[in-house]
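Help needed: design a sequence for this.
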């Protein structure tokens, strides 16, 4: 890491400060806030890092520009939470040419494995499968009209959760009557759900599959505004397990949540140090995720870390 500066703060086990550029997606959800906080806590001066943080407001072009700027600043390593999966080859090649290792965090890319050093994140496909298995057990045997609130189009979690859920409900009586992106935001989920409710009415929709809690929370607002009872008239399954989502689960407004752990900072920091030290690391590092019914949420909500 030729661009390291002397470590004025000390600590971190090494004698150099590691300058890391982190290209975050944006600040679309409660999950993202928890993830950003975890990253900022892990990449501190006293742990041996100088963090250059960029949040791209969910604009893939702006995120690529941020990575290019990290390269021209000569950072020691780059961490990216890629907004979308495609379109990374050029800039990852540029980082490779500049000999700056890249660690992917949270989301994956469709680029070849040799264009990044390692990845740490959650198993999105399995999350979708877990949500789908629950839906299949609850509703698979009866005619069920489901609407889907998709995450950001082209993102790994939207693609993989849809695929996992689809596999799990195949052959059941759950029918997807509408599916649209709400961009992982509460506002987006609310607006899309309003449109679905206008078209099908509260009585025409039995189940919502939201690719994250924030969109489920937006859907709850839309259902209530339309005179329906979320969690009763229309059931909701979502993914993340952030505090507001868990509270809605405890309150009976969401029916099931599959966890997606946002606390990836320490693992990402450890990977950066190991990669720079030349230590062999796994290419893929999965965080562990649970899942919660309303009863289970009541038992754990007070002790959740995010
Ligand atoms: O990539 C993880 C997803 O991104 C989370 O499920 C969602 O809440 C976030 O915005």
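Sure. Designed sequence:
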């Amino acid at each position: 890491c030729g661009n390291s500066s002397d470590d004025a703060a000390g600590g971190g086990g090494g004698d150099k400060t590691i300058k890391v550029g982190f290209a975050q997606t944006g600040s679309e959800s409660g999950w993202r806030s928890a993830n950003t906080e975890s990253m900022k806590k892990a990449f501190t001066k006293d742990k041996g890092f100088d963090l250059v943080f960029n949040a791209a407001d969910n604009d893939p072009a702006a995120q690529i520009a941020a990575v290019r700027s990290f390269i021209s600043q000569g950072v020691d390593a780059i961490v990216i939470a890629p907004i979308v999966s495609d379109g990374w080859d050029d800039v990852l090649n540029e980082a490779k040419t500049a000999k700056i290792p890249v660690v992917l965090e949270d989301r994956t890319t469709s680029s070849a494995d040799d264009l990044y050093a390692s990845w740490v994140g959650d198993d999105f496909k399995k999350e979708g499968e877990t949500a789908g298995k629950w839906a299949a057990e609850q509703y698979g045997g009866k005619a069920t009209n489901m609407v889907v609130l998709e995450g950001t189009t082209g993102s790994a979690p939207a693609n993989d959760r849809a695929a996992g859920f689809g596999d799990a409900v195949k052959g059941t009586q759950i029918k997807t009557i509408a599916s649209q992106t709400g961009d992982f935001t509460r506002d987006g989920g609310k607006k899309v759900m309003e449109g679905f409710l206008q078209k099908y009415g509260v009585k025409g929709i039995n189940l919502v599959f939201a690719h994250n809690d924030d969109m489920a929370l937006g859907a709850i607002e839309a259902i209530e505004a339309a005179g329906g009872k979320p969690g009763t008239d229309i059931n909701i399954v979502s993914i993340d397990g952030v505090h507001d989502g868990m509270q809605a689960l405890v309150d009976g407004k969401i029916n099931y949540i599959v966890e997606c752990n946002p606390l990836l900072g320490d693992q990402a920091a450890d990977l950066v140090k190991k990669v720079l030290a030349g230590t062999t690391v796994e290419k893929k590092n999965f965080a562990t995720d649970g899942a919660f019914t309303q009863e289970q949420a009541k038992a754990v909500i007070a002790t959740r870390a995010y």
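The chain is about 40% helix and 20% strand.
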